[in-house]
């Protein structure tokens, strides 16, 4: 996960990455993540922050702990 994520994004801390990514690279990244993780046990949470008023949250794999607020 670390090596794959560093190919697309900047490492911030522990398991946190950030950066701007094109739609095509985003789709490729998600496809590659799905091949790496165990979709029944692992989870990757992607926050898409387009503007201060619009954001979305995507969970790949197992949803853990329910919904959370972004602070």
Automatic annotation (TrEMBL):
Its cofactor is Mg(2+). GO terms for molecular function: hydrolase activity; metal ion binding; RNA endonuclease activity. Keywords: Antiviral defense, Endonuclease, Hydrolase, Magnesium, Metal-binding, Nuclease. GO terms for biological process: defense response to virus; maintenance of CRISPR repeat elements. The keyword Metal-binding applies. The keyword Hydrolase applies. InterPro entries: CRISPR_associated_Cas2, Virulence_VapD/CRISPR_Cas2. Belongs to the CRISPR-associated endoribonuclease Cas2 protein family. This is CRISPR-associated Cas2 family protein.
């Amino acid at each position: 996960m670390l090596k794959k994520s560093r190919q697309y994004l900047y490492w911030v801390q522990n398991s946190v990455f950030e950066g701007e990514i094109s739609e095509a690279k985003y789709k490729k990244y998600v496809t590659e993540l799905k091949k790496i993780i165990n979709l029944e046990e692992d989870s990757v949470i992607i926050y898409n922050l387009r503007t201060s008023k619009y954001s979305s949250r995507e969970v790949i794999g197992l949803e853990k702990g329910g919904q959370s607020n972004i602070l």
